[in-house]
Amino acid sequence: MIAFVLSASRPVFFGPYMIYLNLHKAGWKEVLLVMLGVVVSDILDGVVAKRLGGKCKSGGQIDSISDKIFTAELLYDYSWEYPLPVIPTALIIMQREVEIGVLRWRMEKLGISFDADMPGKVKAVFQYLFIGAVGVLRSTAPEYIHTAAFWTSVIGGVIAIVLTLYSQFWYYKKADGLLLAHYEKWAEEIEKRQLV
Question: Nearest-5° angle of CA 106, CA 39, CA 139?
Fold first, then answer.
């Protein structure tokens, strides 16, 4: 339950609050504190889940969905000010999230465990850094800082796209290997039954 509350806090509290801060041009310190809260909640929900008896499938799914909603909320907010770099980045990130989510679901239906790997975690950490950096830069007043926020969103967007596509390729490659092992095991069982 505690892990669920920590996961849900990102899209339910931190995302809307970050948008509120951006709309009211709050200072960079407030935005930085919110992003710190997001990172801490993401780390704590995993730690709490492990301490309270290991991760369950639904807990991992809730965590993953919370991350996706939080990311979508802020990318939507940023797209009003920086449509060119943010919208293509957001579309690629969301397309990958949906595709990998469906792939995980299908693998679990076959009884194959399909946990997050390092490329996916690196991508998620970078997304938080990218979103946080743009948010902090947007929240400062001088015009040259807003130019820095724009270029941060361009450069961050390109890196986010590369990491997103790489992690997508990684997961498909991993799924291919897992499926091959699954079907080889299945074929061996059928062969054994035919011999009996």
Answer: 120
